[in-house]
Amino acid sequence: MMRRVRGVAAPPPAERADRRAPQKKKDGAERVDRRAPQKKKDGGVKTSSLFKHNPDIPALLSPVVSQVKEKIFTSDSFSDMDLHPHLVATLNKVLNVSTVTSVQKQTMPVLLSGRDAVVRSQTGSGKTLAYAVPVVQSLQALQQKVSRSDGPLAVVIVPTRELAQQTFQTFQKLLKPFTWIVPGVLMGGEKRKSEKARLRKGINILVSTPGRLVDHIKNTLVIAFSSVRWLILDEADRILDLGFEKDLTVILNSLNSTGPSRQNVLLSATLSQGVTRLADVCLNDPVTINVSGPASSDLTAPATDPGSADQPESFTLPEALQQFVVVVPSKVRLVCLAAFILHKCKFSKNNKLIVFTSSCEAVEFLHAIFTAVLSTNQKPPLSFLRLHGNMKQEDRTEVFKEFSVSQSGVLLCTDVAARGLHLPAVTWIIQFTPPTAAAEYVHRVGRTARIGGRGSSLLFLTPAETAFTTELANHNISLSEMKLEDILSSLMMDDTFKGRGRYHSQSSSKALEQETRERATVLQTEFENFVHSDAQSLQNAKKALQSFLRSYTTFPAPLKHIFHIKHLHLGHTAKSFGLRDAPQGLSAPGGGEEQEEGQPEERGGRRKRLCQQGGESAEI
Ligand code: ADP
Ligand code: MG
């Protein structure tokens, strides 16, 4: 019998074919699977282990969806808005923007008129300036000139450190002509003492991650919130996820004490019902702006349709984003990803890729194995960067900067990079492990095709997970299928991972397929050799597998029928971590022990804390 993850029930239909074949043999498939490919006498490589006994790849259903289009730019310019001329000049010269986007055109007048707002528009449509420009415009116009001793006048909450940094930099630029207004960022990972000192000197526009702000509210007595006039929650749905909800309550309580009346703004490309509830409670008669929704004059319409139990939220994706899905049996996943990366970064130029995976350990694993196996013998060497929540802050900042300015390369990351980040010129988003919700899918792919640009995305699914395309279709997202063989065929573009060598250009298509499979097996063998080369690498691969299994138990209830730990084949999954054998004594962790306390699994973002950081709310 093949080994499966503990507590196995019936396999999903897609895996059944897989199990039947080997069972006919007395020998069973296990031994075949577990051995590294062996050299035949003639020097060829056995290809049996990688391509045999895989589940059939089911035909993908492609439900018809009518994707909603959102026009990014308008014909108006910033100089037409009622803004200080120095602010317009700064927008033009420092930020290089002149034409306003649709969301900016709709949001800025509302905020400048003093109203609260809930804003939804697609990823990369310019939401940051849509709120930052009105904040700066209003603060520079205050009768009583702003001074550092006023403390925070605007508080901007964002879910991750990199987004905090990026948002802070936008304010720094906008404030160039208004030097008396001081922006500042609190983001964790930095010395509390130095943040405290900066707070004491006075920060007028305070950008922070929720956890770090709470930390200062509790431990630093120097934040006086009495003058706060603006509260912005960017990526508002995310801020209500994870452990952030509790943090937000602390923040709201400390803001709500006294002071002038405050304008509140919630923004995201995806708004959940939680955001609508928050808007009801915290916002004062807000204007809802939904760029792809009903005309903005129709402000009474439920424009921010967050969906409901039987009516899922309909998402708008960038028009020039091409979305693909590939169905890959577990065993072949690692080589398939490697072949795709080689195709984009070795055999074609100027591609910048972001690869999302589910845990810090998996990012570390992929980074080590690709750097060792794919970078060698390349000129220039393929560059692999990594970003996840278990890295030191200096390293995170360094990587973020490096990837931002680079023309090409691969960033391996967790969902810590899924929200809000603007990394210029990214051409491909690869979701090596699936997102925990359709909304997270939208944010991950939203790292490309920004502000009217082009971009593509590729989602990896196993045969058992293909129903996720239907889930995406329910949210108005439609994907085109890419074939596994086509991706693997890039291994034929040079002879680095040559098979038996009998193939030549006149050979039959069968021989071509055989050679491609042999090359994939050679590559897999190299991965396995790397993993088994020393105890540390082996340990890292096992840790990555374990964390993958753990994260697989965290899918929210409505997606559990698609992504269930019981559907995973442990031996095959181990292979996608370069392990020849499914590790002994490894079992799927029972649900619950890492579950956020008291939080039912109801939405995607309620993911377990896979990598916790001292004193800060969950980051991944
Ligand atoms: P969103 O928050 O909607 O995902 P961002 O605010 O991050 O989008 O903006 C994406 C990028 O577009 C940023 O680099 C920003 O500087 C740029 N941008 C914003 N507004 C404009 C504009 N009106 N014209 C050109 N570029 C813009
Ligand atoms: Mg944004």
TrEMBL record:
The keyword Nucleotide-binding applies. It is an enzyme of class 3 (hydrolase). Residues 320-488 form the Helicase C-terminal domain. One of its GO terms (cellular component) is nucleus. It catalyses: ATP + H2O = ADP + phosphate + H(+). Residues 76-105 form the DEAD-box RNA helicase Q domain. This is ATP-dependent RNA helicase. It comes from Champsocephalus gunnari (Mackerel icefish).
